[in-house]
Write a structure and sequence with these properties.
single chain, five-stranded mixed β-sheet, 3 helices, alpha+beta, about 20% helix
Length: about 190
């Protein structure tokens, strides 16, 4: 079979694609009508690479109070109790580095008052969980900690509950993360 320069199959081009004429504009990837289409997120979940999904699942059950909802040879799914899964723990490749580029943190807005948040701080310390920092975000307080694989989490206690006011404050202060000196409470 001889290669015909006009045979798109011979050139490795999909035969259903059209060749543009000189000065012909390509079809835009997004048309104007689709620019206003955005997802309306209903639920979210987080999937993390970990060294040992089964061992990590024990930590997530103990520290975050999660329940295992499904498991396989290379993964464990956990839930905070309402959804089929909120966090998936997936076995990382052998020798994978801890931390580094990837997830910066996963924020968990927690129920309760400030004392409840401070009790969570005390619980983390009692369990030997590494606490990274406590911060004032002007719309709430953050308590940052890490799991056994170095993934960072935040227990967030919201102090500004009106979302529009929260947006205004974050903009006004430049999404602050100021150090906060707070005493943990023991149970």
């Amino acid at each position: 079979m001889s290669a015909n320069p006009h045979d798109v199959r011979a050139q490795g081009v999909d035969p259903d694609e059209r060749t543009l004429e000189e000065h012909q504009e390509p079809t835009p990837l997004l048309d104007e009508a689709s620019r206003s289409i955005h997802p309306r997120v209903i639920r979210t979940h987080l999937s993390l690479f970990v060294r040992d999904p089964e061992a990590s699942a024990v930590w997530y059950q103990d520290v975050l109070g999660m329940e295992v909802t499904a498991r396989g040879p290379q993964w464990v799914f956990l839930s905070f109790g309402k959804k089929h899964h909120d966090i998936a723990l997936i076995r990382a490749d052998e020798g994978a580095a801890s931390g580094g580029v990837g997830l910066q943190h996963y924020g968990l807005e927690v129920a309760g008052d400030l004392d409840e948040w401070r009790r969570l701080y005390g619980m983390l310390l009692t369990k030997g969980v590494p606490v990274v920092k406590t911060t004032d975000h002007k719309v709430g307080f953050g308590l940052y900690f890490t799991d056994p694989d170095g993934n960072r989490f935040e227990f967030f206690h919201e102090t500004v509950t009106d979302d529009e006011e929260g947006k205004r404050i974050l903009g006004l202060y430049g999404a602050p993360s100021e150090p906060l000196d707070v005493e943990p409470l023991q149970n």
